[in-house]
Amino acid sequence: MATNGPNPYRGGVTTSADSSVSTGVLGANVGEDLYVPPFPGQLVPVGETELFVRTAGHKVERGDTESEVAVYIHGLGGSSTNWTELMELLSPDVYGIAMDLPGFGQSPPPHQGDYKLTAHADIVAHLIRDQVGNRPVHIFGNSMGGATAVQLAARHPMLVKSMTLVSPALPELMPRSSNIHMPLTAIPGVGERLMRRMMKRDVEWRVNMSMSICYADMSRIDPRRMADQVAEARERDKLAHTADASLLTLRALISTYLDYSQGSPWKLARGIKVPVLLIYGRDDKLVNARAAFRATREFPNARVMVVPDSGHVTQMEHPRLTAQAWRELVESVNR
Question: Of 99, 38, 44, which is closest to residue 74 (Cα–Cα)?
């Protein structure tokens, strides 16, 4: 993955078509059966709350400081199952830990109802320390999970070995027609009405709509994955806090877009020294791929890749490509 400049991680934006990462990989994704059933999980105590956690690969004990660990943070409205295929592909390399953030998936709401990204980052840090000790791990974050990862790296730098951010939801003040519903939903009163209207729609319709927004090509979705998503949505509909979790987290995310303090996301990015891989989808309807250019300026040690035929969830749409890009990042660090 070519970059420019003296720093091996900082520099220009590459595309998968121009990068060695795509050789024999991107084509292998199209039409290939990559379905992996969701990993089993369980509720584990984390501080004053619980998180539903799924794992993949050989378990790493708290005293083991040599084995590699990866922690996966999903996006707004998502869950730990958004990482299933990537976790499986990377399981020979790392012990993977994916959680449902508080209020999402099968995790209960957060203690005292705090849905701020800083609170999400702190609970992830608590989980890491509980599961594998006070040691650095590889962080993966998608969308809002990417924004949470930035907070994690800023607040708990000793826990982060590298970061891979897939379409991170970092501040951009010019909404497009394809994502204008996000700031509108964040408006008090309006959001509640829109959410009630949405929850009245059929589950299959809602899941199909969500996937059509997140994917560049819906034909890449295995029917079994779609069935899993529908089943998960049905279970989440039974929980009284589901709508509030999405709405309050969205408002917390939007508030970071209006933050001009030293704690604003892009300013925090400048202080993150670990290697960072940023992956954007050129056909992303939610995060503008043009943010890739700003990312090269703000993250000191960043590699940035734009995938031409991918949407908002490249780790789901092109899991092999994502896995290979991460491996190349790690190999370059270890040289």
Answer: 99
Q: What is the pTM of this model?
A: 0.90
CB < 8 Å & 24+ apart, contacts of 286-291: 286/143, 286/167, 286/169, 286/178, 286/179, 286/182, 286/213, 286/214, 286/312, 287/143, 287/167, 287/168, 287/169, 287/172, 287/179, 287/312, 288/172, 288/174, 288/176, 291/168, 291/170, 291/172
Could you give the domains of the chain?
13-334 (3.40.50.1820)
Cα 186 to Cα 184: distance, rounded to the nearest angstrom: 5
Quick one: tokens of 255?
A: 């508030």
Q: What is the distance between the alpha carbons of residues 302 and 147, in angstroms, rounded to a whole number?
A: 15
Roughly what angle, to the nearest 10 degrees, separates helices 242-257 and 117-132?
A: 110
Beta-sheet pairing, 95-100 with 13-15: unpaired
Average pLDDT for runs of 10 along the chain of length 335: 37 53 36 82 95 97 93 97 98 98 97 93 98 97 98 98 97 66 65 73 93 95 96 94 92 92 96 97 95 95 96 97 97 81
Surface-to-core class of residue 282, CB atoms within 10 Å of its CB (0-12 exposed, 13-18 middle, 19+ buried): middle
DSSP E strand boundaries for the chain: 13-15, 41-46, 49-56, 69-73, 95-100, 137-142, 160-166, 276-281, 302-307
CA 42 to chain centre: 20
3-state DSSP helix/strand/coil % of the chain, to nearest 5: 45, 15, 40
Distance CA 318, CA 181 (A): 26
Report how far residue 180's alpha carbon sits from residue 124's, in angstroms, rounded to the nearest whole number.
29
HSE-up of residue 323 (Cα within 13 Å, Cβ side): 23
